[in-house]
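Dear colleagues,

As part of the handover before I leave the project, I'm documenting each prediction I ran so the next person doesn't have to rerun anything. This entry is a single chain, and its sequence is reproduced below.
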Amino acid sequence: MSKDWDAVATAINTRMEEREMTQVELSKRSRVSVATLRQIQQAVPKRRSPRTLSDISEALGFEPTYLERLADGDASLGSPTDRLSALEARVAKLERLAGVETQHG
């Protein structure tokens, strides 16, 4: 099965933008060369080691296997932004419930 490098590139580029991170910063944090990062960000189809994707994942604040699983087409992942929105909604609901308990407690 071929890897979904477009999905990986989108995830990396989106996360870097969200965190206002440059390629040089990501390179330093992940210990992956800028040249390799550039290729991955441009979805160049090339075999990558799981370690490389894990290092990039962790440097971006994802779980270590996130980019590898995304490359393999793991549909259960959803986007990190979707998961963050879902968590924010749950926290807001819990805060509302805590407020109701305080008022009626």
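The chain has six helices and no strands. Residues 80 and 86 are 10 Å apart (CA to CA).

All the best with the project,
I.
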